[in-house]
Specification:
heterodimer, B: mainly beta
Chain lengths: 112, 112
């Protein structure tokens, strides 16, 4: 079945450094890739997304890249701040099944 | 624009009891989803509605879980009887286009 692998499971960086989270998907019909940020006890919030006809998208300090050939996509956060600390989930949406499959999550800790 | 609303926010019950959760999606969103999120994991889809019809309930444990979306707006998810392993956060999400999903705050269920 469809699967999304996310790495690393935990990531600790110093404030100001960059953080990169990588995901790999299995369903070649996947055409939409959102990233969600979930703070402790709160709802997952959409922070950025990318569609399969685009290779890269940037929004201020966050960017997402997509490599359709290799079936992987990555989240890049630059100039990290303590408020970036949260669990980040990648997901892949299949146009065939209409399902959004989530990765296992990455706990990002930004140390001041 | 109001977000996805859910209630209650927290629920504690004993095993074998029943419980119901309510969700009100973003106005105009035709697609509604119920997810189960176990601590430390990504959300797992339980059921997907398109208007008032079920699109996918393949991951719903139908011997104990049921869900309905009368009139294609609000939805209710019920568990009867609850088991210890049902302890999780139950997230409702809605979508207008079928891919970008917006989540509610979730209901944290503890089964003792």
């Amino acid at each position: 079945g469809e699967n999304v692998e996310q790495h690393p499971s935990t990531l600790s960086v110093q404030e100001g450094d960059s953080a990169v989270i990588k995901c790999t998907y299995s369903d070649s019909a996947s055409n939409y890739f959102p990233w969600y940020k979930q703070e402790l006890g709160k709802r997952p919030q959409l922070i950025i997304d990318i569609r399969s006809n685009v290779g890269e998208k940037k929004d201020q300090r966050i960017a997402v890249t997509l490599n359709k050939t290799a079936k992987h996509f990555s989240l890049h956060i630059t100039e990290t701040q303590p408020e970036d600390s949260a669990v980040y989930f990648c997901a892949a949406f299949s146009g065939n099944t209409g399902k959004l499959i989530f990765g296992q999550g990455t706990t990002l800790q930004v140390k001041p | 624009e109001a977000g996805v609303a859910q209630s209650p926010r927290y629920k504690i019950i004993e095993k074998r009891q029943s419980v119901a959760f309510w969700c009100n999606p973003i106005s105009g969103h035709a697609t509604l989803y119920w997810y189960q999120q176990i601590l430390g994991q990504g959300p797992k889809l339980l059921i997907q509605f398109q208007n008032n019809g079920v699109v996918d309930d393949s991951q719903l444990p139908k011997d104990r879980f049921s869900a309905e979306r009368l009139k294609g707006v609000d939805s209710t998810l019920k568990i009867q009887p609850a088991k210890l392993e049902d302890s999780a956060v139950y997230l409702c999400a809605s979508s207008s286009q079928g891919d970008t999903q917006y989540f509610g705050p979730g209901t944290r269920l503890t089964v003792l």
